[in-house]
Fold this protein.
Amino acid sequence: QVQLVESGGGLVQAGGSLRLSCAASGSTSRINAMGWYRQAPGKQRELVAGIAGVGKTNYADSVKGRFTISRDFAQNTVYLQMNSLKAEDTAVYYCNARGGVGDGYVEVWGRGTLVTVSS
């Protein structure tokens, strides 16, 4: 089993910054990709940023140049540095981890952390 615990959400003014953290515990050796998703009220959950392998990253167009995802393998933690925040970044942010193949495939979600950006 893999467990994810997010932290770092909160209220920030537009233009400000926040850093989200997601700590993985349990059977983390199977994890080869982690990411951050978000879901705003009335909208579908969407990918914000992902990191796989030794550091291949991808970002939603809406956050490119403002958000940075990184991973600390030793601490089994993934971070999302969010700069130049906008009101439209307001959402619940969820951490995702997945890996393994076949019967060993695992995909886990955190409970989410709320980010509110005031304009």
